[in-house]
Amino acid sequence: MLRSKRTWAIAGMAAGAGLLAACSSGGSSESPSDGGGDDGLSGEVSVWMVTQEDSQAAAWEAIVAGFNAIEPDVTIVTETRQIDPHKDALRQAAGTSAGPDVYWYWEGSGLGGELVNVGLSKDLTEYYDQYGWEDRFTSASLAGVTQYGGFHGVPWTQQGEAIFYNKALFTEAGITELPTTYAGLVDAAEQLKAAGITPIEFGGTVNWHAMRLLDALVETKCGVETADALNTGDGDWGTEPCVTEAFTELKTWGDEYINDGFMAMSNDDSSQLFYSGDAAMAFEGTWFESNAYDGGMDPENVGIFTFPTETGRLYGFGEAFYINAGSDNSDAAAAFLDFVSSSEGQGLAGNAWAALSVNKDVDRSDASPLAPSWIEVFNDATGIYTNNDQNFSTAVTTEYWRIQNSVLLGDIDPADAGSEFQSFRESNQ
Amino acid sequence: MTVTTPSRGKSAADGRSRPPRRHHPFLRALPYLVPAFALYGYFLVYPMLDAIRISFFKWSGFRTEEPVFVGFDNYTRMFTEDPVFWRSFTNSVLWVVLSLLLPMMIALLLALGLNRKMIGRNLLRSVFYLPAVFASITVAAMWRWLYNPTLGLFNQVLEAVGLESWAQTWLGDPKFAFYSVFVASVWQAVGFSMVLLLAGLQNVPQELVEAARIDGASAWQVFRNVTIPALRPTFIVVVILTMINSLKVFDLIVGMTGGGPAQSTQVLALWSYTQSFTNHSFGQGGAVATVLLIVSLVLVIPYMAWTMKGEEK
């Protein structure tokens, strides 16, 4: 039955895509390529991306169907992997002929920038000119693809990360107001714990999940200027007292408020605790809303608030679709990305990946129950601070995670964590 | 009766009935060996030598970047600054030592037990051998679930029998994680060694066993002085295979812990891979691989030499 419903949903979205495509044949700057299949585009476009949740997979099929309604001679072949295997596959394919035509990836110097530097990404300036993409995207999302010089990637999402909370569990613990300060967040966690509720869930086997907490604590304890110097500049992790404070808080959260056994769980396993009402909070991104509903949560019972760092910045990052510099079908790939990022394509994407669209003409305020909250969160943010695995090189990230986990496990004293990390950074230069 | 013996000189002179030339055995075998040598050289020797070569370069592994020669810098850094190398080195050596003790002992006991005539012997042999058939990544997935802190069998059983205080985050606590993975390895490895030892036990000369018994030897004395010496060739094979398999343990750890938590279950083979393919420090990865190669040779070659010397005696 579920399958049947999904099939109908996909068919409906595809039909909608066809209608939208038909309506858009006027060819404004917001319209996908209006070649209607007579522009000579054909062949196969391979796309690598991470494994999709049910609602995302359905939306993706609809997007592909919508594109094929316009370009029937282009075949989109999508290949998905889990997050870490996706990273590995692209790094190994870089510089070879084994890569895809299009790949989905994060932005930022540590991840997207790494592949740009080694020449995997094609500079898309010609396509930005051809399709008028500069006028299509929000300035924040454009900043993500222009940071390396030229245009590397077509913006796909601008993700924000915040605390998802279970309203019923907050009420049960007697929490009447959402935390707006870090002290308030700790108080809330304490109240939840006192009520016998696991305050927050993390999965430690994927190091980047608990990293979100550490990143937010560094932002909280160090403030904007110092945090930026530490994460993206020449700041000294070994001498800043705020670093020790952040690691000390991390240890406290690990000992007191995170789900038992989290170091032996993946993020997928720990997320189940939130879906099932066994944990009150999850530190996740805009994509998590659809995951929570797919996981069986009642939309009425889910809310969000920003991690109260008290700096005013929102934790988040951008994602883009990049065209492989070695692609022999880049025109068709660009046409596909033109559709993906158009109003039509973004309409089909809905809120499956993000609450807000990178396309400035797409209004998603009614796209999902949490969309208005996310819009408020983004509007209130004074800036973005990015996940450190996107700031650091992969070798430094591996060490950052080792120290983070060692502190959580009690193997490294929080007072020594910063200096140990700093000495690695210096030796790795 | 007349016997005519052909003249060798004449035959050689006229060349009509030259006797077949006796080629050296190696030359005769060469056509059959060349394909194997070629494959061995290309897929094993060349990558091995190339890994050693790369260990003297700084290289990200991307084809678009040129390797830069750095001499012994990667080794210096590995020995003095790499926070994970010594942990992985210690773990690899410990894994070898434990593998030589526990699985071999269990395998020997099982082989001795299942070498007797008993009902269901073949079934039991199959049951104990079965884990050796599974791919390591499958074993990892099974045991990861068994160790799951909330849903796993071990903690649930402990809770069911009132020993909830013994429940642990088996794979999430550095105190237990390494040994928890090793237990899964024992479960997988015992069957194969057991089969080898069973085969060895079939070759223990029964007349020697019976002669020893007639001479009044106890069961222990028979085992110590007849069975164990007769098993010597089998032991050599089992020990060498165990050492080699222990040093190259990789997929089981990847599947169960990924080397974590906090790199506490890291081993040389996995750290070499991580340095190369995750951290994109192929020089560092090559240096770790070279150390692993040296450790393997240091452990295996003296043992092989010693056992061969024993054979000659």
Strand-helix topology:
The complex is a heterodimer of chains A (429) and B (313).
Chain A (H helix, E strand, L loop, with lengths): L1 H22 L19 E8 L3 H17 L3 E8 L1 H11 L8 E5 L5 H6 L7 H7 L7 H8 L7 E13 H6 L9 H13 L3 E4 L5 H26 L8 H16 L10 H9 L3 E7 L2 H7 L7 E4 L7 E11 L6 H12 L1 H7 L21 H10 L2 E3 L2 H4 L2 H16 L4 H14 L2
Helix pairs in contact in A: 1-2, 2-14, 9-10, 9-17, 10-17, 10-18, 13-14, 17-18
Chain B lengths: L7 H7 L10 H30 L2 E2 L9 E2 L3 H8 L4 H30 L6 H13 L2 H11 L6 H8 L13 H29 L3 H9 L4 H12 L1 H16 L3 H6 L11 H11 L3 H31 L1
Antiparallel strand pairs in B: 1-2
Helix pairs in contact in B: 2-14, 3-14, 4-8, 4-11, 4-13, 5-8, 6-8, 8-11, 9-10, 11-14, 13-14
Describe what you observe in this structure:
The complex is a heterodimer of chains A (429) and B (313). Chain A has 429 residues and is an alpha/beta fold. Chain A folds into two domains: 39-159 and 317-373, D-Maltodextrin-Binding Protein, domain 2 (3-Layer(aba) Sandwich); 162-314 and 387-427, Periplasmic binding protein-like II (D-Maltodextrin-Binding Protein, domain 2, 3-Layer(aba) Sandwich), CATH 3.40.190. Helix content of chain A is 49%, strand content 15%. In chain A, helix 2 (54-70) links the parallel strand 1 and strand 2. The relative contact order of chain B is 0.13. Chain B has one domain (57-312): MetI-like fold. The A-B interface holds A 88, 91-92, 94-96, 114, 118-119, 204-205, 207, 260-265, 269, 394-395, 398-399, 402, 405-406, 408-409, 411, 420, 423-424, 427 and B 60-65, 77, 81, 83-84, 147-150, 169-174, 257-258, 260-264, 274-275, 277-281.
